[in-house]
Specification:
Elements lengths: L24 E7 L6 H12 L3 H14 L1 E8 H17 L5 E6 L3
Antiparallel strand pairs: 1-2, 1-3
Helix pairs in contact: 1-2, 1-3
Length: 106
């Protein structure tokens, strides 16, 4: 026998928490080194961050000239996962590419 059969109607109430905020965003930063090939960096930017080839080349040049560059700004879990995936691929290819995460200060 259900509650409605007994003449009792129950309602679920959802409480809204107005104190919820958007998750913090994190910068994914590639650090330049003298061993990781520019081709590998370009391929990783295209493959993991969906950049067009021309954009990936420009970012790779920025990394080379400036020593590092922000390649994406993402929620922490996604930034961490992509950073790990790129690092694992780099190590598998014999490259010491470093990927750093840094909280974006708004």
């Amino acid at each position: 026998m259900s509650n409605t059969d007994a003449g009792v109607v129950t309602q679920n109430r959802v409480q809204v928490n107005p104190d919820l905020k958007e998750p913090n965003m994190y910068k994914v930063i590639y650090i330049n080194d003298n061993q990781t090939s520019m081709e590998f960096v370009i391929d990783s930017l295209v493959g993991y961050f969906d950049y067009a080839e021309v954009q990936a080349q420009k970012i790779t040049e920025d990394i080379h000239v400036q020593g590092s560059a922000v390649v994406a700004v993402l929620p922490y879990e996604i930034a961490e996962q992509k950073g790990i995936e790129v690092t694992v691929e780099a190590r598998s290819a014999g490259y010491p590419l470093q990927v750093k995460l840094e909280e974006e200060i708004v």
